[in-house]
């Protein structure tokens, strides 16, 4: 009885634990389903801008450059510091009057006896005047304000401003590269999913064909080799279907990891524009607004600033300075010394070991390098936008041309299916027609994907990412209406 009760309590506890586990698994499943909701391309782009570690790193470079620029503004201000010191002298500084004229050259024997007797009564310590103690303590407030540095302060501040522009251009470049990567991964999910569905349709169709072939073989209408040919085609299609599913899974994982979400269901379909953008306008926008050119302009500005900075080493430096004593001892020297002082100073370089002439030449070489690189980059960007535009046109022409091939392959499969069922065609002909139709669908899908990539590339190069996103939203709305 005791054993039965214990067993009953154990079963009750186990049931309760299993029930809680089932509820937990159900909750997790529901959470996963909630995260796997549809996401448009514009939503995916907003999500990526928010969670991308790469962009956050580039943004910190911008913040760093801006902080350095703000720090450079302090070069216009005076410096103020408190200085304190403790000095241990070998001996206190003293002055003995007997070492000074006329006492030093005085012949005591030539003096009257009365005077001599008076001088003899004076102790030697009375002639000593202490100026400082052996331990000297001092504290003062020191100020220095450069008012002319040969343009070096202005040059340094200009370099800091150009570095901000450079970091902002790098951020814009990273943003555009990330945009192209999102286009590739976002539509890769749709493409691989459609490809897997196409391969699944092929498997289903070939499975039905094999079933018909087996029946026809049993009735003696076709040879065994015809049925085997259909089975071989079916097995190959299953292998291709498995590959397509793996590609879809990898594309889905890549997009989800990129957006930092468990799963993504892209809701924006592939599309093609009826009227393509103007190539001349794309080229004009590219050569006027591309971040690579602004980055090189910032490099050129930094090189100019570096030339001015090195040339400033040949000019004098003029500055204001001042000192105010905060604490001093009670010595005679401290009483004589003034409590504050101000003045103007100038420093003129005559001979220096800094090698300014070589540095100026190096800075000029960096300036020329930036200018030549900018000219070459303009040529490369012009070529890139031309190539991407023509790739887009080529992909559209391929999609349009494959519409006729798709209709032909569909009709050919229908006729081959009828002929095979009536014993007027072989299984090989029917399978070839099925494979041809799948190949045309796959080829057209690949062309549509290449069109999306090329279109996104020309829009990213010309700085029209927002226009691209607006186009995807318009396309999504039209698909919803249909």
Automatic annotation (TrEMBL):
Main location: membrane
One Pfam entry name: OEP
SUPFAM superfamilies documented for this protein: Outer membrane efflux proteins (OEP)
InterPro entries (alphabetical): OMP_efflux, TolC-like
Localization of this protein: Cell outer membrane
Keyword set includes Membrane: yes
Regions crossing the membrane: none
Alphabetized UniProt keyword annotations: Cell outer membrane, Membrane, Transmembrane, Transmembrane beta strand, Transport
Family: Belongs to the outer membrane factor (OMF) (TC 1.B.17) family.
Protein name: Transporter
Species this chain originates from: Shewanella inventionis
